[in-house]
Design brief:
alpha/beta; 6-stranded parallel sheet; 11% strand
Length: 723
């Protein structure tokens, strides 16, 4: 199917009945093998003659009208770079030159030995029957190993002219992607972080362009649009420049998020014939504006790239199939998919057979090789995966570990009290708007069900945020409850002043928000009766005051807690520098990273920490320099927020410390993926997870590890976890 356009140029041949009957008696379909059979007949009839001559390297053509001599391959090297001898002479215009070239050709031809029997033997072997299993195995092998696409003239020239060339595993993914696109129209490439998906995606776009322009397509058919996160936009542009491509129809998905139905961005999206979405996990929420805008596309092909197709839960696979178009499934599969989707929407568990079906539907679109699989392929063909330095290009061994903070009994007791207080929260901040969609108001029973879900979710999120910020640091918890400025004042009192942070946007401040909301009831469009504390002004004010009182009590507890956990984290990071010259650490709370930076500079000045968050733009540049491939820096600790977990390559570091446990698989894989890359200079990298006391740990930690197991079972995982 990949040669669909080229096949159009071959005429169907009507062979004589005698010939087809003869070959059918030998179990050979003549109409499929007619080119081989025709050549054999012409050799036997003396119309074509082959000669063989050892140690001959020459390209000479002699015809009745012209003669050519040349050594060039039809490539950039052959036509532009290397010194080559090439000439063409016609008998009419250049008779002397023609005779000279023709005599050279005749000399070598006459010097050769008769090769007809040898060639006939090779051709007969082409007609040899094989079992269907052998034929299928060969076809699968050519597809998976990319042989058939490397022989496609429309892409072979592209591969040969790239410098540096593609890795073999990238070529194989391109071949598989083209096959999937031919059959289903959409493809999801879900190789792990660090596998070179940007380069792979750029080469795939050029392959599609070559197939259009060298096949039967027209230039306007190559209307490709690439949408990616803003932080990797320049990386994509650089990759196309390195490939000698002028392609520049690249947009940030931030523009897509802000676009409206009839603006220029939306019109360009609607006219694109090929859409390439980088970091496709950003479209897992069907309700986001960028996801809604994407639904209006009319593209022939949709190419999705992501290292984390399953982000939070197994049901993410429904959304991925939906993005790529369920109409690409057959009729029975569509019906089954819709049945499974309704089951999942009701909150019912999918049974193992149903999960296998869903996995099968996604696998039709999916190209997914885990780090282990890619390493195995590299070991099979090592010379196709050499870096310019000569080092073998493969993922380092991922060594998972845990670290302990040895919380003092007093802090554990305070944490237990904070957890008890958090259980009393209602989550009023997240109940300011109770507006349901029309389908959620179909009946009073449905309204009540949705209302209860909102009340439960608001309370759970309020509890989770208290617990997650407490796990991060005392300062993060106080910031969440009373705001950034109050948290900075607290740190100044304990002699850890943070300059500049108090002038940033005031983050958190649950108490301040509740104070401003308590005199105004929440907005809603429900017809059913709300709890009195949401519908009666006095009761609502009383509920807000109670919530404020709980938050104040929690903040008071946080001020009594020691800094032992933060000091232990800083000490662990500093101690790791004895083994790892460069290491990265991640926490989602910026104020915690600032506290750790302060402690490290005070207690471990030799550690030379680098604070890298969204506000230190110069430090982001420094991080690329210190931790990027080839850096000679030693003795550095990167204190990173999520701004550094995506789109940057920091593989000169050899360890990652997770200061918190991410709530979603995507964040974990992205953090680890900064150093765990195919072109890593290290044979192994270490990943450290926190082993917190149960009073500081979160229930979502267990969910994270369960999700990791689901990913590993369903599509193959890339995060190795310590037992």
């Amino acid at each position: 199917p990949i040669f669909r356009e080229l096949q159009k140029s071959y005429r169907a041949v009507n062979l004589p009945r005698e010939m087809t009957d003869f070959w059918l008696q030998q179990n050979i379909a003549a109409y499929l093998c007619w080119p081989v059979i025709s050549l054999m007949e012409k050799i036997k009839a003396g119309k074509i003659e082959f000669r063989l001559l050892d140690n001959l390297h020459a390209k000479i053509y002699t015809g009745d009208i012209s003669a050519m001599l040349g050594s060039s391959n039809f490539s950039k090297s052959g036509l532009e770079i290397q010194f080559e001898a090439n000439m063409r002479a016609t008998r009419a215009q250049h008779p002397a030159e023609y005779e000279a070239v023709a005599s050279i050709g005749d000399f070598y031809f006459n010097k050769g030995k008769d090769g007809n029997d040898f060639i006939l033997g090779l051709l007969e072997r082409l007609l040899k029957l094989v079992t269907w299993k052998e034929a299928l195995a060969r076809a699968v092998g050519e597809l998976l190993e990319g042989d058939f696409v490397r022989n496609d003239p429309r892409v072979a020239e592209l591969f040969s002219n790239l410098d540096p060339g593609l890795w073999r595993v990238q070529e194989e993914a391109i071949g598989q992607a083209l096959y999937v696109l031919d059959h289903f129209g959409s493809v999801l490439i879900a190789d792990p972080t660090g596998s070179g998906k940007t380069r792979l995606g750029a080469a795939l776009q050029l392959c599609l362009k070559n197939r259009v322009l060298l096949g039967s397509g027209k230039i306007h058919d190559d209307n490709t649009m690439l949408i990616c996160p803003p932080q990797v936009l320049e990386g994509w542009k650089d990759e196309f420049v390195k490939m000698g491509s002028s392609f520049n129809n690249i947009e940030s998905h931030a523009r897509l998020s802000r676009s409206k139905d009839n603006d220029a961005m939306n019109q360009r999206l609607g006219s694109a014939r090929i859409i390439l979405l980088d970091e496709a996990h950003n479209y897992l929420s069907a309700k986001s504006n960028r996801s809604e805008q994407l639904q209006h596309n009319l593209a022939d092909h949709l190419l999705l790239l992501t290292a984390t197709p399953i982000n939070r839960r197994f049901e993410d696979m429904f959304r991925l199939i939906e993005i790529m178009g369920i109409d690409n499934l057959d009729e029975d599969a569509v019906k089954d998919y819709l049945r499974l989707y309704k089951t999942a929407r009701k909150g019912e568990r999918l049974q193992p057979p149903d999960k296998e079906k869903l996995q099968g539907y996604l696998s039709q679109f999916l190209i997914r090789r885990t780090k282990r699989e890619l390493n195995r392929r590299v070991d099979e063909v090592p010379e196709a995966h050499r870096l310019p330095s000569g080092r073998l290009c493969r993922y380092p061994a991922q060594i998972p570990n845990v670290y302990h903070l040895n919380e003092p009994p007093g802090d554990i007791a305070i944490a237990k009290k904070i957890n008890q207080l958090a259980q009393e929260l209602k989550g009023l901040i997240r109940l300011r708007s109770l507006k349901l969609k029309p389908e959620e108001r179909a009946s009073p029973a449905t309204e009540n069900e949705r209302l209860q879900l909102r009340l439960t979710a608001a309370r759970a999120l309020a509890i989770f945020t208290v617990q997650s910020t407490m796990r991060s640091s005392n300062a993060a918890l106080i910031e969440h409850i009373e705001g950034t400025r109050v948290a900075c004042s607290y740190l100044e009192l304990i002699e850890l002043p943070l300059k500049g942070l108090e002038n940033d946007k005031d983050t958190g401040n649950m108490i301040g928000k509740l104070e401003s909301y308590k005199n105004e009831l929440p907005m809603h469009n429900l017809s059913v009766e709300l709890p009195k504390w949401l519908s009666d002004p006095n009761s609502y004010m009383e509920a807000c005051e109670q919530e404020i009182s709980i938050y104040r009590a929690i903040a008071g507890c946080a001020r009594k807690m020691s800094l032992q956990r933060e000091i232990a984290k800083a000490g662990f990071l500093a101690g790791l520098l004895k083994k790892h010259h460069l290491l990265l650490s991640f926490d989602r709370n910026v104020i915690t990273l600032n506290v750790l930076d302060k402690i490290l500079r005070k207690n471990y000045p030799e550690a030379r920490p680098l604070l890298v968050t969204g506000r230190e733009k110069s430090n982001q540049i420094e991080a690329r320099k210190y931790f990027g491939l080839g850096s000679k820096e030693i003795g550095r600790i990167g204190l990173c927020s999520e701004v550094m977990s995506e789109g940057v390559n920091l593989q000169q570091a050899s360890a990652v410390v997770l200061l918190d446990v991410p709530g979603v698989m995507r964040i974990a894989e992205q953090r680890i993926g900064r150093i765990d890359r195919m072109n890593s200079p290290h044979d192994e990298v270490e990943i450290f997870f926190p082993d917190d006391h149960p009073e500081f740990a979160l229930k979502t930690d267990r969910k994270f590890f369960l999700t990791a197991q689901i990913v590993d079972d369903m599509i193959g995982g890339n995060v190795d976890l310590d037992r």
